[in-house]
Design brief:
The protein is an alpha/beta fold. It contains 17 helices and 18 strands.
Length: 481
């Protein structure tokens, strides 16, 4: 049997960055999978050697580890039952709502928790297998909050970092979780914990104090290892961003610019194209955005097709009940708006429920006069930063919810509170009536902000913070060595 390959940098995330695509002739290939985390990490891992531990997306036995685009991919198996209990259940129907202001009710089931513990243990074992002595281990997101402590128990020699892509909830909401202490202790196995915003890190520190009786000092919390050694774990903000150079380069290509013109022409060259791009998720405020637009059409303030809305709603978590219900509501609303306000060949809402290649996304961003980013709660929202990055012409305008992490950095956007439908309508109207110079000034400022803090800087800062974590003891000599 060949020796197990080990790496100095190990990423652990719920999903591998690739999906298996089966061709009609039965052969299969791996394609890069969509989503915020993969988009960000893809550019970070370019040029670095490392391993990525994650689920390959199909239940049953996992494929053998393999190399893809210079990265060692180490699949972790999930059974069908674990997909339902660990992933769709505990991760997406317990944690996700609790961490997003309980926009829909969270469900608690002890068997979901047990599956979460089991799967986290499996991830920790896979990480321990591929990590070289003294490696850096970078664990991602809410599905793997127990992995830091589990890895530490198996491999006290490695440095462990965890990054939360979603918000960390206020203690009053986090306290609802029956397993809140186990989660805090799981996270405290890390040397460094990264969050999107300072208030998220502060929520975590407060939870440690109030729910686990720990002492915090500044941005650190004290903990003790099983051997009795005390450690300080640091929790701070490292806001994620986009691959500014790569995306801007793509947006500047002639093919993308031509495609943007084509898109506008196929929409009938409206005066104003408004765009929404989101996973079909109840946190994203798609319903609120549609309501505001419908009311503007109803009261005659705007008319279609002069003002047209394009809504890309990427399929997401389709087996979870709250997502099924949301899809029905959104599609009924789109149908009603189109039934009432569209003319033949000119729908008021263009609703696109599918994934697109990056080129098409860049062209859509360039074709849109107004980008509507209206989440009720969002860790960051990369779409806002992608839109700004693609507008090298300094055209377009960003309407941004104050409940996104992005708004904490992009204060020059046109801010909205999506719960305030009247306010949302007013912002849309205001942006439509602004003169070109004013819009450009806002876009220029936004582009400077995003340009100063790209995804590479995010990764470098995270890894530097992890590097500064206290020196770890050497790895114990393996038995029989
Ligand atoms: P998401 O909730 O998935 O991410 P977001 O940050 O907007 O949200 O990232 C979505 C990504 O998917 C973007 O790169 C976007 O371009 C892409 N995408 C969306 N629809 C697409 C489509 N139809 N076709 C192709 N690509 C599409 C989570 C958190 C966020 C956080 C990110 C990163 O919920 O708050 O910003 O992780 O940390």
């Amino acid at each position: 049997m060949p020796a197990q390959r080990t790496f100095d940098l190990v990423i652990a995330a719920n999903r591998l960055p690739v999906d298996r695509v089966v061709a009609p002739d039965g052969t299969s290939e791996w394609h890069r999978s969509p989503g915020g985390l993969v988009t960000a990490m893809d550019s970070v891992m370019r040029g670095r050697e490392g391993a990525w531990v994650g689920w390959a997306g199909e239940t049953g036995p996992a494929p053998e580890p393999f190399e893809e685009s210079g990265m060692w991919l180490h699949p972790v198996p999930l059974s069908e039952e674990e997909r339902e209990t660990h992933y769709e259940g505990f991760s997406n129907d317990t944690l996700w709502p609790i961490y997003h202001d309980v926009i829909v009710p969270a469900h608690f089931h002890r068997e979901w928790w047990q599956a979460y513990e089991r799967v986290n243990q499996r991830f920790a074992e896979a990480v321990a297998e591929v990590a070289a002595p003294g490696a850096k281990v970078w664990i991602h997101d809410y599905q793997l909050q127990l992995v830091p402590a589990l890895v530490r128990a198996l491999r006290p020699d490695v440095r462990i970092g965890w990054f939360n892509h979603i918000p960390f909830p206020p203690v009053e909401l986090f306290a609802q979780l029956p397993w809140r202490r186990q989660i805090l202790e799981g996270l405290l196995g890390a040397d460094y914990l990264g969050f999107q915003r300072t208030p998220d890190a502060q929520n975590f520190l407060r939870a440690c104090r109030q729910l686990d009786g720990r002492t915090t000092k500044g941005d650190t919390v004290a903990t003790a290892d099983p051997d009795g050694r005390t450690r300080q774990v640091r929790a701070s903000a490292v806001p994620i961003s986009v691959d500014v150079n790569g995306l801007e380069e793509l947006a500047k290509t002639e093919a993308v610019q031509r495609r943007a013109e084509q898109i506008r022409a196929s929409l009938g060259n409206p005066e104003v194209v408004m765009l929404g791009v989101d996973r079909l998720d109840y946190t994203k405020g798609i319903r609120h955005r549609l309501k505001a637009y419908e009311e503007l059409l109803a009261d005659g303030t705007v008319s279609s097709p002069a003002v047209t809305l394009v809504q890309v709603a990427t399929p997401s978590r389709e087996r979870v009940e709250a997502y099924k219900q949301l899809r029905t509501v959104i599609e009924t609303t789109v149908g009603r708006i189109n039934g009432t306000y569209s003319a033949i060949g000119a729908p008021a809402v263009h609703y696109l429920h599918r994934s697109y290649p990056r080129e098409e996304m860049a062209a859509l961003f360039q074709a849109a006069d107004i980008m509507l980013v209206t989440p009720l709660r969002d860790g960051m929202n990369l779409v806002a930063k992608e839109y700004v990055t693609c507008r090298h012409d300094e055209g377009g305008a960003l309407v941004l919810s104050e409940f996104t992490g992005a708004w904490h950095e992009l204060k020059q956007a046109y801010v909205c509170n999506p719960h305030d439908i009247e306010g949302l309508k007013q912002v849309m109207l205001r942006v439509m009536s602004l003169d070109d110079r004013e819009r450009r000034r806002s876009m220029r400022a936004l582009r400077r902000r995003v340009g100063d803090n790209d995804v590479q800087k995010w990764a470098d800062t995270f890894l530097a913070n992890l590097e500064m974590a206290p020196e770890r003891p050497p790895r114990p000599t393996p038995k029989g060595a």
